[in-house]
Amino acid sequence: QVQLVESGGGLVRSGGSLRLSCARSGSIFRISNMAWYRQAPGRQRQLVASITTRDSTDYADSVKGRFTISTDTTKKTVYLQMNSLKPEDTAVYYCNFKGYSDPWTEADYWGPGTQVTVSS
Questions:
Q1: Predicted confidence (pLDDT) per residue in 89-118, tens digit
Q2: Burial level of 41, CB count in 10 A (0-12/13-18/19+)?
């Protein structure tokens, strides 16, 4: 019943900026973590940035200083502000929530992804 939908992807020139949004519908009993992943063609899906409900953040080394992850107070929307974009940032970006459907079981929830293409 939980659904995640990403938006904000598109084509941008190198050095440009883009803001991705992830909207969650449906409830999660307890959220463990929220994150953005990306996957380029022929590459493994990798963690880009994550944020806890206490606003503790982590970033992949490749995006530190350029990307910022944030969430609204309801934890129903997660954002990824991407600045100084590079061609190597080109990928499908996926929103991810980790949480508990009950006190014992943690599960992953994924959006369908949004394409980000950075031209040189």
A1: 999 999 999 999 888 999 999 999 999 999
A2: exposed
Q: Low-confidence residues of the chain, pLDDT below 70?
A: none
3-state secondary structure of 17: coil
Structure tokens at 33: 């973590």
d(CA 34, CA 94) in angstroms, rounded, equals 11
Q: For 89, list phi and psi in degrees, rounded to 5.
A: -80, -10
Tokens representing 25 are 């519908």
Cβ neighbours of residue 82 closer than 8 Å, sequence gap 6 or more: 17, 18, 19, 20, 63, 66, 67, 89, 116
